[in-house]
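Sequence only, no structure available. Ideas?
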Amino acid sequence: MAQALCGCASTEITGTWTAPGAPGANLSRVAVICMTKEEGVRRMAENAAAAELGGAQAVPSYQVLGDTDLQDAQAVNEKLEAQGFQAVLVMRLAGVSENVVPVAGPATFVGYYGWAAPRVYSPTYLQTETVVHMVTNLYSLKEEGKLIWSGTSKTFDPASAQATAGGVARAVAKELAHQHILAA
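Reply:
I predicted one. Tokens follow.
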């Protein structure tokens, strides 16, 4: 269902950091937390990420934290450790920006000129694209909450919060598998 709503959005990982020793860390039970004030967005994003993390038993945090205050880091940590989680993947929105980009045209002079001239004299020859910036961190609960992987991503022109979450989840899962951080 999440893939059907993705529309034209595309997500790319723009940067990562990996702790030495993180590849092969054998983290097989991972809680997924999406930090947001909107409960519906949280659930949708956590479900999307948990579904994409095929190399681990990933569980949305809303299913295991119950009424735990998400702003109480110690309480969240204790509850996850008590339930046997080895790691926690935390996603958060870092920002939304808009870029104004020119619309591409034909590659020949006459073709381009005939195409571009009418657009230059109208307000429609530039487009605005929305870019959603996310930060995703993976912490090892086996090592006292140590950060073992961090990634930043951009999603271009998402149709919805669900499209953004799905795109980020797929990109992060692909990167974690590529770097051999989660158990296969």
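The chain has one domain: 10-178.
Hope that gets you unstuck.
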